[in-house]
Amino acid sequence: MVGKLMQKDKFNYFIKTEKNNWEVIIGLEVHAQVVSESKLFSGSSTKFGGKPNTQVSLVDSAFPGMLPVINEYCIEQAVKTGLGLNAKINLDSIFDRKNYFYADLPAGYQISQYKNPIVGEGEINLDMPYGSKKIGIERLHLEQDAGKSIHDLSPDNTYVDLNRSGVALMEIVSKPDLRSPEEVNSYVKKLRSIMRYLNTCDGNMQEGSLRADVNVSVRKKGETKFGTRCEIKNVNSIKFMEMAIDSEAKRQVELLESGKSIDQETRLFDTKKKETRSMRSKEEAHDYRYFPDPDLLPLKINKSFVENLKKKLPELPDQKRDRYIKKFNLSPYEANVLVSEIDVSKFFEEVIKTADIKLAKNWIIVELFAVLNEKNIEIKDSPVTPKNLAILINQISSGNISGKIAKEVFDIMIKTGSSADKIIENKGLKQQSNPEEIKKIIKKVLDKNSEKVLEYKSGKVKLFGFFIGEVMKISAGKANPKLVNEILKTELKK
Ligand code: ADP
Ligand code: MG
After folding, report:
1. pTM (2 decimals)?
2. Are residues 336 and 463 in the same domain?
3. Residue pair 435/487 in contact by the 8 Å Cβ criterion
4. Distance CA 149, CA 162 (A)
5. pLDDT tens track for 396-449
6. Which domain holds residue 341?
7. Which atom of ligand 1 is nearest to the CA of 226?
């Protein structure tokens, strides 16, 4: 039996058995839907969730004689993404036909790019707990999506929805540089983050805007040649990618250790059984008979087109992280957390326009994230707006409320969306900072506990905390802790 534990050894990830340590090799082909109002070769809408077959032009349904017209905006999006991946932009590229038969592919071929993609080699930087690591990008090419076959509406029929037919996809192929499910998790998130910064793919995995074919092989530790890989098709969540790799790698190790070999094949991940199963083997592999699409001219891009896009490129996650570390004195961890989602960084920058940076980062990373995670909501839908969080933080900075009371106020803000100022006023939560008032309370506590005061004076200094606790109780947590501390010290010396 193959060991259950996957063991990490600095950069690598091994499956440990009685006989060997096995290394896992992974390469990803990510399909990312291009952000664009209209499709790659037609003017129909790409909007998600429309009634079936309402966003289909004659080109998308492959009526005879219809000619594709390239959507320049999609080209721009692919080039921007290539620049974001530090990749080579190919000024000459070619659209090919990839031929296969399926009911949801009315033309009988998909327009894709084969030998000459629009973007060549690039790389993505990952910040792993054990250091940073570069993952090579092999290529990025443009292609059309197919329609959707719906098998579960009727026991006897399959329905076809062509709304997706012709939607532009970028296929981003990594080198086989990934070594663990964690690295794959980090890679997909980083890629998604870059594309969201660029607004070239919305990265919405529930809606199918981002999905991946996951290639997995194993080899014994120390070996330099790669083993035979299997490709797990169309995985649409990061969690499933991690689970699929885990189970597929173990399956391969078990086969190899029992003296068998790996067939290169296409597999599917069964999300219920949490294992992969065979879909088709190499022998049955398609011959797609790729050839340049005679309806489309080779794509030529001007150098100036690329240069212009380069100039307009926004600040990307890695640059933003470095800037945050330097300018705001954040730790690399904090900076990474705040830049990984563009909406989080926007929220943070909005808060610190008017509030203290140190408090802002802590309140976002600790308190706000806890709530968003628990309620499973995105930061852009946060019940607490950046402005309102800034108001709360300013109430703390100015000494109007203590950190403890601030948490109470925050909870109410989450529930009601009401402003921090209003809550503090309505509930009378303002911190008690009048020294005379505090002195009164302290005197009350000391009079009531005269024996404990004697014990304190004879050396039982631990009782200090008890007195503080009593004062806070009487003031309903509102007494300014710093003042209580100071005044109590003086009173006890008397
Ligand atoms: P294909 O077009 O047949 O899918 P590619 O050469 O384009 O083949 O490779 C597809 C993906 O498989 C790439 O992401 C690559 O990194 C990955 N890959 C190639 N060899 C291996 C291997 N031995 N183990 C794991 N992944 C691999
Ligand atoms: Mg492939």
Report:
1. 0.86
2. no
3. yes
4. 9
5. 998 888 888 899 999 999 999 899 989 988 887 777 888 898 899 999 999 999
6. 315-426
7. 23
